[in-house]
Structure formats: structure tokens, C-alpha cells
Amino acid sequence: MSKRCLATLTLLSVLTLPVAAQAPRSVDQAELLQRRRDAERLTRQAQEETPESVPAISPEEAFDVGPQYILKTRERHRWFEVGFDSQYSWTDNMFFEERDSGHTVSSTVLTSAARLTLETPAWSVASGKMAARAGYNHIWMNYALTGQKLDPLTGFRKSDNDFDAPSLFGELSQTWEHWQATVGADWLRLLSHQPTYGSYDQFYRDYAIRWSLTRTIELGTSHSLLAGYLGSRHFTGVDPSIPGLNDRSRNDRTDHTLLLGYTYKITQRLALQPSYRLQFSGYDEAGRQDLLHSFNGSLVFGLNRWLFVRTYGGYEIRESNDTLVSDYRKWDLGVSLGATLRF
Fold first, then answer.
1. DSSP line for 52-78
2. Residue 75 lies in a domain
3. How many domains does the chain have?
4. Which end of the chain has fewer CB atoms within 10 angstroms, the N or the C?
5. Within 13 Å and on the Cβ side, how many CA atoms surround 300?
6. What is the full DSSP assignment across 199-229?
């Protein structure tokens, strides 16, 4: 190989280093956001589908005449939902590194999201209600807007890891009283802002089909429990970790998740929502298997019917049988302001 070719390859490897290193980190971050949004979406849908019950006069009344429900005037169906959410948080491990590696880096993170959802009116099917939803979601991830700007280990700017995550989704849900079954599909892209912020270079894509079954358990007038199973199959494409190797589909996998969430309605506008998820991921390549524990909690205050403030905290533990994949520990703490409009 000539010196000129060798110099060219060396230069290209240096220039592409930030983007190549960004891919797995951004993928982990995008998947973390998706996991949390799936849990929040299922919790919100379960609360919306659960009818408002009237307390029984006596313990025997529910067995004699069945549960009694408040009759409400049927509201006009609203086809569209527009949502905005801005979250400002701190993480102690922005690169999802091993805790004892000495390479963990903390950062502030601004996560902004906008979504548009189209939902059909529910129709009666098999003694239940079925509805279809489809929409578009866009997420902007920005690191280190405040605090230390540079990665102390490499000297690169933390903002070099900024990315956008646009996605399309569609789903069909069937509800029977306190049960809900859903099948859906998602298309996700990750767009880098390198070498300039306006580049929008795609470095990852994910096509997924998903399915879920959840059960809402009413524990009282102010308490409810959500238990469920979520499954998904992912077909992915990512830049090769080493140029020349054909490992673009190394993130193809099947996920199986158990979800347990609790809602305590402290007041009419204030709710406490802790949750736990256990996720097993089986990857197609190299027999990789990951086990993920996610502990999350949020305190949500509704300023009015469409505007809310939320404080939250999360802790994640990942264990993998692949020695090239980090077994990370990660804390996230933050506050968000969001709005949901229907028309």
C-alpha cells in the first residue's frame, strides 16, 4: 500500500471517529427514550380506557347487581392529537459505559419532542372496542447546553453527540374492560449533526413490529396498577463498527418486556407514577443476550386540561453476555413541561 493511500485512510478514520463512536451511544439513548415513552403511552391509554366507577353502597352490591358506572354525555370524537414536550435532565453516564471503567461522563441533556397523532373512533368488536392510531414523532437531543462542554476523556465536545430521531408509527388496539391488546409498527431514523449542525446525516434506522397485552387493576378510587407484556421485533441498519465489515444489521433483535406500573392520584391534578420494567433482548448476531432493569418514577402535575409539569428520575442496569457490550449503570434526573391538544 502506498504512503499516500495509507495517509488518506488514516485521515478518513480520524474525520469519521466522532460519528462512528456516536452510533452505539445514540442508539442506546434512542432506545431508552422509546422504552420510557412506550410505558407512558400504555399507562395513559389504560387510564383513558378505564371507566369511572361509583363506590358500592355495600360489599355485596357488586356481586348482586355488578359494578355501577357514571353515565356521561358522549363527547364528540377528536381525530387529532398534537403533543409537545421539553425535558431538561442530568445523566451521570451519557455514553452508557461500564461503571467501574473510569470512563463515565456526566452531562445535562435537553430532550425536545413534538408529535401528531390521528386516531379513529372506536368501534365494537368481539365484545370490546377497537381503535386505530397513526402518527409522526420527532425528537431533538442536545447535550451540555449548560455545564462542562467538553468530554474530559477525549477532548471532543459533548454536543458532537447531538442527534434527531424522527419516527412514524401505526397501531391497532382492542380493549375489553380492563384488558388491552395492541399490535403496531414503527419506523425510526437517527440523524447526526456532523460535520455541521445542518448536515442531518442518517447513521441508523430501525423498522419494528410490536405487540402488547396489558391489564389495569383498580385498587381504589385513587390507586391503580398496570401490569403488561410488550414484545417487539427490530430490523435495523447501522454504519459498520469497522469500515469494510458487513455488520450493518448487528442490532437486529427480538425484545420481550414485563412492565409493572403504579399510579397514585394524590389530588385531582397531582399523580405519582413509579414503574419497573424487565427487558430481555435476543440479538441475531453472535448469540448476544441482554437483560435490562429499569426503575422509573415521576410526579405529574396538571396545570390545566392540556398543560402539565413532570419531575422524574430513572435508574437502569444492563447486563450482557457479549464482552464487547458495556454492562452499564445509569441515573437520570430531570423536569419536563408538556402539552397535549386534541381537536
1. PBPPPSSTTHHHHH---B---PPPPP-
2. no
3. 1
4. N
5. 24
6. --EEEEEEEEEEEEEEEEEE-SSSEEEEEEE
276: domain CATH number?
2.40.128
Residues 94, 16, 281, 35: is their CA dihedral positive or negative? positive
What's residue 44's pLDDT? 63
Q: What is the pLDDT of residue 28?
A: 85
Cell of 215: 391489564
Q: What does each C-alpha distance from 93 to 16, 34, 102 come to in angstroms?
A: 23, 18, 11
C-alpha of 44 from chain center: 14
Grid cell of 24 as nine digits: 452505539
Of 152, 29, 35, 38, the residue nearest 91 (C-alpha)? 29
* pLDDT per residue as tens digits for the range 23-60: 567 888 888 777 777 766 666 665 555 444 334 333 33
What DSSP letter does each residue of 238-303 carry, written as one string?
A: E--SSTT---TTTT-EEEEEEEEEEEEE-SSSEEEEEEEEEEEEEESSTT-EEEEEEEEEEEEEES
Please give the residue that has the higher pLDDT: either 270 or 25.
270
* Domain boundaries, position 270: 24-53+123-133+152-332
